[in-house]
């Protein structure tokens, strides 16, 4: 059987690893040695699951979407990560990483953020654990996701707008790594997705795997079998997708479809569809598919969705896509806006623009009537209301009111 998980050096096939500057070598190495014994300990598991239950509000519901099922000719279930405390899946991971940081004796937390959801989730757990928190965010995203910036500040975090590059997620990651290099002893970097040097892709995937762990028993309880015919999720760095598929990676009866951000179209220069367009390179400490020019210069990503605006994608997904285990669709901005309006009008759920990419994938697939489809709604759309309204003309029949 193909191994789709990390090997002991953090490689997924040819992707992954830990390519870090000398100054970070010790803290990355220490983390590699420490993370599994800690997160597999009974003490950690008890604390982590208690917080997921009573603080985050897990399990998140698995909701049968009746009207959308009729429209797409399948049995559509939505995994409602939008109902988590702070509004997205990101908090599953930050709860786990802050517990790990405390066990390692760190006193200062840094994080990068794109849509602001990971920044808010990090600021939240720092408030909870009384830890100092600094968040790096591209200046473009500070503007387009300003409600989340205010939330982070209210939670006591310091937000650093990053003005290099195109001032989005990738630049925020670079700045966070730069900061980490200056403070390797006391600082823990809470990475927000399945990216970065080993062990982060594996660590984040494990923290998000609670999503598919729940899908299994929820499906069993609702339909009498524990696997779906399809799993669908959006993919930026890859964490909600990794969590959604984790326990189904070797389940051959389940097809996996991931939706990446096409922007204006993956064949254009205005795209974030990394799996379609990327070539192998190293970014933020990991070997992955990266959008780059022939000299290896990183190309700017472009999409309406701040959380998918990344020129790379986590190594687990690069490997699975390359081996044909996942089908990856490129969803353009207008298709995502339309998908977001459609879920809003048909089920009364306003999804994050990131999650709307997964919704839009439904119209590109052909289902049989009794196919069971589980689609992860990674976050809620409160932060995106202005963007939806500004672009309602793209939503076709749903946008006119
Ligand atoms: C709601 C939501 N969904 C999806 C993503 C994409 O991240 P990932 O691919 O790690 O799940 C983000 C990132 O900010 C997000 O906020």
From TrEMBL:
Origin: domain of life: Bacteria
Keyword Amino-acid biosynthesis: yes
CDD domains: Trp-synth_B
Pathway(s) served: Amino-acid biosynthesis; L-tryptophan biosynthesis; L-tryptophan from chorismate: step 5/5
Cofactor: pyridoxal 5'-phosphate
Cellular component GO terms held in the UniProt record: cytoplasm
Reaction(s) catalysed (UniProt annotation): (1S,2R)-1-C-(indol-3-yl)glycerol 3-phosphate + L-serine = D-glyceraldehyde 3-phosphate + L-tryptophan + H2O
EC code: 4.2.1.20
Pfam families on file: PALP (PF00291)
Domain Tryptophan synthase beta chain-like PALP: 57-379
The protein's name in its UniProt record: Tryptophan synthase beta chain
Keywords assigned by UniProt, alphabetized: Amino-acid biosynthesis, Aromatic amino acid biosynthesis, Lyase, Pyridoxal phosphate, Tryptophan biosynthesis
Enzyme class: lyase
PANTHER family (alphabetical): TRYPTOPHAN SYNTHASE (PTHR48077:SF3), TRYPTOPHAN SYNTHASE-RELATED (PTHR48077)
Alphabetical list of Gene3D superfamilies matching this protein: 3.40.50.1100
Extent of the signal sequence: none
Subunit structure: Tetramer of two alpha and two beta chains.
UniProt modified residues of type N6-(pyridoxal phosphate)lysine: 90
Organism, scientific name: Xylanibacter ruminicola
Single Gene Ontology MF annotation: tryptophan synthase activity
NCBIfam families listed in its UniProt record: trpB (TIGR00263)
